[in-house]
Amino acid sequence: MEQSFSDMLALLKQLVSTPSVTRSEQDASALIKADIVRHGYTPREIGLNLLLYGRSYDATKPTLLLNSHMDTVKPVSGWTRDPFAPTEEDGRLYGLGSNDDGSGLVSLLYTFYKLDSREQPYNILFLATVEEEVNGQGGMKLAVNELPHIDVALIGEPTGMQPAVAEKGLMVLDFTVHGKAGHAARNEGINALYRATELIEKLRTFRFDRVSDLLGPVKMTITMINAGTQHNVIPDVCTFTADVRTNELYSNQEVFGMISEQLPEWCDVKARSFNLNSSRIDRNHPVIRKAVGMGMTLYGSPTLSDQAILDCPSFKLGPGESSRSHTADEYIILAELEQAVPTYLELLDGLNISE
Q1: Pairing of strands 152-155, 314-316
Q2: Which phi and psi (to 5°) does residue 130 adopt?
Q3: Pairwise CA distance, residues 243 & 98, whole Å
Q4: What CA–CA distance (Å, rounded) separates 61 from 20?
Q5: 64 pLDDT exceeds 70?
Q6: For residue 263, how far is the Cα from the chain centroid?
Q7: Within a 10 A sphere around the Cβ of 60, how many other Cβ atoms?
Q8: Within 10 Å of residue 40's Cβ, how many Cβ atoms?
Q9: What is the per-residue burial (b if ≥16 Cβ within 10 Å, else e) of 232-261?
Q10: Backbone angles phi and psi of 294, in degrees to 5
Q11: DSSP single-letter state for residue 133
């Protein structure tokens, strides 16, 4: 295992040194492909995504998918280090993508190598995706069409190696409020901005009855607003945008219908997509029962991942902490990385995932 960790750490440092901001993942994909080939496998390339089958794939067996993403966000302001220069300091490795999601990526890849080195009661697939940070068309949305039937998926996002067995969904809504233009000096017209602010307050205080024990309530947040063309004209149109995070007790379309019912006739609303629903896995699933037996703590995650696109039971489990993602001086604790593969192996090696 010491050699595996040394190889993993070296690969992670190479990833950090290889800028892979979303939609610029070519070099990172080539780097991961080279490691896969070095281990004697030939990955299937789906765009820049890399799909890897175990050597003894058998269509009659259930299938486990291991997935992490190769892309990162852009470096935020406030970095005190070069984000693309991996730096070891006080037991930590600093660098962009070290926590989200480089450590999960290399850990699951090396878990795949280990699991596939001996017979398992299931098929094992590894999928490295791109464009996860923007839910892009070239990432999981492209790769999912090439996957065989998946019985359960493990997503290697930073969770402190505790299973996130539910994940909030996402729906972005664009509202258009209509009024009537007029001269501001004569107080003419109907001010669409005033109408919008009154409606925003109504939506701010609206509550959804079904509260998840894992994910809490559905959360709707107004994040953008725009109105007016010049200072002396009453605005006849005001637009605003809401970020809606759904729990597993509602579909996105159901939430959209409930919000639409709250709107007056002078307001229109459109959803950019209904596809990113909340996802979950039954707490009685064999892999979750095994995790609990290992002393892990189940929880619900407020952040979105590629599992929202998968139509199968799925959960997140990976080294690192979500709170470090997308922050200046992002880091992974080296002990977290070192412990990840042994933990994955204890959870998955020889497990009957369909009992």
Answers
A1: parallel
A2: -115, 170
A3: 27
A4: 35
A5: yes
A6: 31
A7: 5
A8: 8
A9: eebbbbbebebebbbbbbbebebbbeebee
A10: -85, 0
A11: G
DSSP type of residue 74: P
CA distances from 23 to 48, 74, 131 (A): 10, 11, 6
Band of residue 4 on the pLDDT scale cut at 50, 70, 90: confident
Q: Tokens at residue 173, please?
A: 């809504």
Contact 227, 247 (CB under 8 A): no
How does pLDDT run across 179-227, given as a tens digit for each residue?
999 999 998 999 999 999 999 999 999 999 999 999 999 999 999 999 9
> Between the CA of residue 315 and those of 31, 66, 89, 107, 259, what are the distances in Å?
26, 10, 31, 16, 29
Give Cβ neighbours of residue 32 (< 8 Å, ≥ 6 apart): 15, 50, 70, 105, 109, 128
Q: Cα(227)–Cα(81) distance, rounded to whole angstroms?
A: 40
> What would the pLDDT profile of 161-177 be if each residue is shown by its tens digit?
999 999 999 999 999 99
At 224, which helix (H) or strand (E)? Answer: strand 219-227
Type of residue at 201 = E
* Per-residue pLDDT at 243: 97
| Separation CA 123–CA 65 (nearest Å) | 8
Q: Would you state the pLDDT for residue 28?
A: 98
- What distance in Å separates the CA atoms of residue 64 and residue 151, rounded to the nearest whole number? 6
Helix (H) / strand (E) containing 345: helix 334-348
Q: How far apart are CA 120 and CA 116, in angstroms?
A: 7
pLDDT, tens digit, 9 for 90 and up, residues 9-30: 999 999 999 999 999 999 999 9
User: Cα separation of 74 and 76, whole Å?
Assistant: 6
